[in-house]
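Sequence design from tokenized structure. All designs in this work follow the same two-part layout: the structure record, then the generated sequence. An example of the structure record is given first.
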């Protein structure tokens, strides 16, 4: 099946928002017959009736409203992708230089930068994506104005502020013995099992190490060290071994049963995601605006 194009999804969302094909077509600057044809093509591609066309006008069907809700999320993700890509392209010479660890860069920072760009379209933002330890180093050396980390710290010489929360989960493929466990995994069992892990300096790795130390269960036993969450996720799906990973990184895989979350008792795997900047320095301008926006979004 050929996938729907973004313009058709945008049209469907506008029909839902504005209440008619004519108004949606006008908002996109296309003729109403073209809009109707595009929606008919989308219906054929998805095999669903999306628009109820009557003499009184057009409205989305129940299926159409569901698809429009999903389409809105897809378009938001695409906007975040474009914003993040622009920021990665413009690391050097930017007015606002930002560094972020992987989880924050994938799931939070593009939306924050997008909002900064909407309120100040002339603001030139550069983004560097590295692990938490490297983010802190870039901030401490003045290479970036503001950093975002997922490690628990401590961060000597840096001021910090909570911007979001996250939770790590133990995941295994559906065929793994842990996927059929009836009782929770203990902290000691987790510590005794070789895991697919991120590299040293990664926020996820540091969070797991810290959580197991607090539980008195000993250090992580690395089975395989990889440099990104996607690499860890794919290794687990392929059967390499269990992993502890952000639940944000495995939403689709858990929903599709490609990965199964395993309950753990006796160890706290929640974590706080933080902004960091040099201690004693007051943020100003776009950096202060970005921090305010990030903190506010974490409270909503």
């Amino acid at each position: 099946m050929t996938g729907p194009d973004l313009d058709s999804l945008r049209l469907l969302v506008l029909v839902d928002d504005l209440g008619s094909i004519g108004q949606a077509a006008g908002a996109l600057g296309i003729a109403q017959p073209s809009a109707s044809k595009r929606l008919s093509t989308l219906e054929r591609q998805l095999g669903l009736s999306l628009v109820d066309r009557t003499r009184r006008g057009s409205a989305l069907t129940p299926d159409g409203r569901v698809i429009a809700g999903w389409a809105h999320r897809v378009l938001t993700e695409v906007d975040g992708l474009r914003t993040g890509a622009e920021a990665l392209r413009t690391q050097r010479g930017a007015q606002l230089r930002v560094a972020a660890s992987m989880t924050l860069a994938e799931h939070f920072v593009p939306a924050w930068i997008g909002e900064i760009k909407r309120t100040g379209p002339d603001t030139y933002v550069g983004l560097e994506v590295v692990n938490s330890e490297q983010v802190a180093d870039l901030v401490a050396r003045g290479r970036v104005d503001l950093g975002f980390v997922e490690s628990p710290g401590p961060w000597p010489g840096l001021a910090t502020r909570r911007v979001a929360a996250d939770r790590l989960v133990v995941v295994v493929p559906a065929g793994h013995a842990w996927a059929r466990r009836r009782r929770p995994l203990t902290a000691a069992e987790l510590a005794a099992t070789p895991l697919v892990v991120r590299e040293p300096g990664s926020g996820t790795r540091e969070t797991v190490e810290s959580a197991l130390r607090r539980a008195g269960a000993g250090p992580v036993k690395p089975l395989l060290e990889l440099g990104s969450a996607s690499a860890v996720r794919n290794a687990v799906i392929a059967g390499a071994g269990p992993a502890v990973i952000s639940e944000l990184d495995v939403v689709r895989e858990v929903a599709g049963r490609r990965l199964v979350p395993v309950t753990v008792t006796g160890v706290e795997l929640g974590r706080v995601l933080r902004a960091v900047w040099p201690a004693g320095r007051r943020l100003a301008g776009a950096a202060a605006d970005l921090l305010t926006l990030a903190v506010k979004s974490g409270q909503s």
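Residues 194 and 223 are 5 Å apart (CA to CA). We note this feature because it recurs in several other targets discussed in the main text.
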